[in-house]
Write a structure and sequence with these properties.
2 copies of one chain form a homodimer. Chain A is an alpha/beta fold. The first copy, chain A, has 3 domains: 44 residues, 434 Repressor (Amino-terminal Domain) (Orthogonal Bundle), CATH 1.10.260; 126 residues, Response regulator (Rossmann fold, 3-Layer(aba) Sandwich); 133 residues, Rossmann fold. Helices cover 46% and strands 17% of the residues of chain A. Chain A is built from 14 helices and 12 strands. In chain A, α7 links the parallel β3 and β4. The longest helix of chain A is centred in the last third of the chain and has 17 residues. The first copy, chain A, is elongated and about 90 Å long. In chain A, 47% of the residues are buried. At the A-B interface, α4, α5, β2 and α12 of A face α4, α5, β2 and α12 of B. β2 of chain A pairs antiparallel with β2 of chain B. The structure holds a DNA duplex (16 and 16 nucleotides).
Chain lengths: 337, 337
DNA sequence: CTGAAAGCGCTTACAG
DNA sequence: CTGAAAGCGCTTACAG
């Protein structure tokens, strides 16, 4: 493998001159530059990433801290990962995977070993233990998701509250006065997924404002349990004819159960939901919905992180909530009164 | 941040002595070692990963090359990624994500910049363009999946042929003499997913051996198309009462369609399938099946790669096919004759 | 067993 | 605009 010294010799210049054309931080005579570039091409030279990192004190790598080991229903996770890698690459950053069960420990180790320049934390929970080491070390980081307290760290997430309002309004606009709200099991609320809470609270508030009566059903986890809960909720003769869903397992099972009960959408039931586009695609879900947008959220998060890396003394940390987009799929009919 | 020089000074020894206790490659007097370790603890010192990499000429990072951008139906991909990262960590390797659409280019760049010590290639296709640069550079690598020709590179994959045989035998053992074989759309065969071919050919051969008549149905892509194809295949009055499935989209849709047609398993239909455990879990599939095992395959692949890194002049490249495990779920009934 | 020196492949002030 | 020198933080022969 050719080194910068080989290139310098081949071009008949000093190593520092080669470095100057490599980094582009200095002005070099076009003629000299051409000689250097010819030598680079001839020797098929590439900069040694690690050596440059040592000299510049920047690894040009981002650490991606992702919790995999808590069984989460997340076919969308891969989408986030690749979106983050793509966004990072646009800024010439690589992505190092930090998947240890002990995320906090992984962070401390990676920071101490100077393996990365900054961190992206995925699937944040309410009191996320990974935030501690970041605050302690003051290491640059961005959160994708929302903890109880961002503690001065930039955070990006979908605006679940706005999503809830959009969906409630959509039902209310169609004239519905009552709806069954199928939400997450209690464990999800308790385990600190703030999206569950943010959606629910906003849905309740907006429903009150729009005088829509919400019948809240917390569906248990597990396919069989979901099926049973759904059948129970839908089979009641007094059940509202509108469904507001925020629960991936439930919305995935919904077409099957509705069909089993001989119910059709939107004739028998109006349905709106918030779920990931990935889930909708895999299950071919035919419902008007607000879709979480991993690509947009990931790109925004990386952009914010890189900007902060470039200007460390920039403005205070920001929390960015991405406005949800409603995708209409004709699953809502006017209420019959 | 403390450096090795700070530690040496604090402990009153030379830098090389600190390095000796760090690497453990030399014998150090217990007393000296204790002094060094105390200094390390006091200064909260960690080895700079990049500096060590430069000195040792080993990054201790594996590059994970994954094709994301060809829309693949793969909720299991995240499982592979984390399994690879976990396996790598057991050998003290980190994982750098290489997700560029141009995988071959990404490989050349990463190798040239010496960013990684070896490569893991995921979702291999028949004539995978990423194999070229690996053969050219002779860089250590392992394939997860099976190309047409491994070209002297280690490869690990599930034994799809054995999986097919196990499932065919399972039906034959129950007395079935004919079965409908629901396989992938033609595009999948043509796009070089060798698993499709390997399964099909073995299923055909084993069925012939067991005198099981196989009615091969290649199901088109797309949720609606799958549904239609399934209904057509199952609604025929002359349709065999046994189903052999190798197609994720089809098996995911199967419970719904069977239900729509008022058919039950195993009373009306015996069903066996090969699909990922992840898919089975998400869709709660109740079928006896051979499940692809991302964790086992990934771990094996990384182990093989690391061994080759340790002993570069080891034996010739090996192709390892992981034996499939049959998970029985009582979806097969004896044939009625 | 310990230490002084050279080297890994770069970049970056600093002279000229 | 170009070059010689020092330095990034380690490891590794090589003396002693």
């Amino acid at each position: 493998m050719a080194t910068i010294a080989d290139v310098a010799q081949e071009a008949g210049v000093a190593r520092s001159t080669v470095s100057a054309v490599l980094t582009g931080r200095k002005v070099v005579l076009p003629e000299t530059r051409a000689r250097v570039e010819a030598a680079i091409a001839k020797l098929d030279y590439s900069v040694d990433h690690g050596a440059r990192a040592l000299a510049t004190r920047r690894t040009m790598n981002l650490g991606l801290v992702v919790r995999f080991h808590e069984a989460e229903f997340s076919p969308a996770l891969a989408t986030y990962i690749v979106a983050i890698a793509d966004a990072a690459r646009e800024h010439d950053y690589g992505v190092l995977l930090l998947t240890q069960p002990d995320g906090a420990g992984a962070i401390r180790a990676a920071v101490a070993a100077r393996q990365v320049d900054a961190l992206v934390l995925l699937n944040i929970i309410q009191d996320d233990p990974r935030i501690g080491p970041i605050v302690d070390t003051g290491f640059p980081a961005v959160l994708i998701g929302m903890p109880r307290d961002t503690q001065g760290i930039d955070a990006v997430d979908l605006d679940f509250a706005a999503g809830a309002r959009v969906l409630v309004d959509h039902l209310a606009d169609a004239g519905h006065r009552e709806a069954t709200f199928l939400t997450w099991p209690d464990e999800v609320f308790q385990s600190g997924r703030t999206y569950a809470e943010r959606f629910r609270d906003a849905a309740v508030a907006e429903a009150a404002r729009r005088r829509l009566v919400l019948d809240i059903v917390s569906c248990p986890a597990g396919p069989e349990q979901v099926r049973d809960a759904l059948r129970t909720a839908l089979a009641r003769s007094t059940a509202p004819r509108a469904l507001l869903v925020h629960n991936d397992a439930v919305v995935a099972m919904l077409p099957t159960v509705l069909h089993e009960l001989g119910l059709s959408v939107p004739d028998d039931y109006s349905v709106v939901s918030l779920h990931s586009a990935e889930l909708g695609r895999i299950f071919a879900l035919p419902y008007t919905s607000v879709e979480s947008e991993p690509e947009r959220v990931s790109k925004l998060a990386v952009d914010i992180l890189v900007r902060r890396l470039t200007a460390p003394d920039g403005p205070a940390a920001v929390t960015t909530l991405v406005a949800p987009r409603l995708v209409e799929r004709a699953s809502v009919a006017p209420a019959v009164s």
